[in-house]
Amino acid sequence: MSEHSVPLERQKWMYETMVKIRHYEETMVQVYTEGKTPVFNIGAGTVPGEMHLASGQEPAAVGICAHLTPEDTVTAPHRPHHIAIAKGVHLDRMTAEIFGKVSGLGKGKGGHMHLFDPGVKFSCSGIVGAGIPQAAGAALACKMKKQNQVAVAFAGEGAANSGAFHEALNLAALWKLPLILVIEDNRYGISVPKEVSTAVKSNAVRGSAYDIPGYHVEENDPLEMYRVSEEAVDRARKGKGPCLIEIETYRLLGHFQGDPELYREKDEVAGLKEKDPIMRLRQHLLNQGVQSNVLDTMETRVRQAVDQAYDFARDSEYPDAEAALEDVFAPSIQ
């Protein structure tokens, strides 16, 4: 764990939020299988569609969201729950949206990969790299309106090989936009290892191609992610332009729920569990004198909030036939 100074209250917030994310994802593992066949989780079930969970990737989200306000824009990829929770997306309505319920953020029409909460300026897209240009557009709006806000785009390491990554970084650097691009290097693009798909060991070096800073965070370290993000956000707010952050992170689950993970060795997953960032941060807090009962209370509080969100989603109504078509078609242009 990084030795760089991070305010204790921020460390406690990060720990509490990481526990919240983990409990949310672990609960979804169970809920998602309801009503589905065991192989590849086929069938509508309680939660329809594919499901991509982020257990293990919590540090990437909390490290930078600790520096953001509801007025800062964040875009996420198809694995979005950890980022949404860290950004402060309404948990009950987010869960209802994933369940396809009318009380959801998008009235049940967007689902797990298309969450949108304008109250905290959060959105996500199921298409690889699609959120990067959107965040660049938000950063451009901030600059044109002379607002002291930033935009953050999250993407996987595979998205760093897409055109959207390079096009957005080029314009952001050219126009000195307050854009921060966070690459979550979880080692696999679906089932393809990074070393056979990407020519550089760290995508952080790609920042030099656009004359912007590139930061690399090792070992899924939430405190180092906090320190690097503090510098990046401060730089963007001061009008010094964009930057790129890549964090070495680990997904403890497959690319999607039901993924047989034939491309991963069992001992690899076991080794990642031994590096659990939540347990490492908990021990770090204990070493600083935080009492275990304080941490236990925090854990209980967030687990209750997550359980309440799932109860809210279960108790909500599905849209009827008429409601299902509301807000789907654009009004006619007169």
From TrEMBL:
Domain Dehydrogenase E1 component intervals: 48-321
UniProt xrefs under InterPro entries: DH_E1, PDH_E1_Alpha_Subunit, THDP-binding
Keywords associated with the record: Oxidoreductase, Pyruvate, Thiamine pyrophosphate
Superkingdom as given in the UniProt entry: Bacteria
Cofactor(s) the protein requires to work: thiamine diphosphate
One GO term (biological process): pyruvate decarboxylation to acetyl-CoA
Molecular-function GO term, any one: pyruvate dehydrogenase (acetyl-transferring) activity
Protein name: Pyruvate dehydrogenase E1 component alpha subunit
Organism: Melghirimyces profundicolus
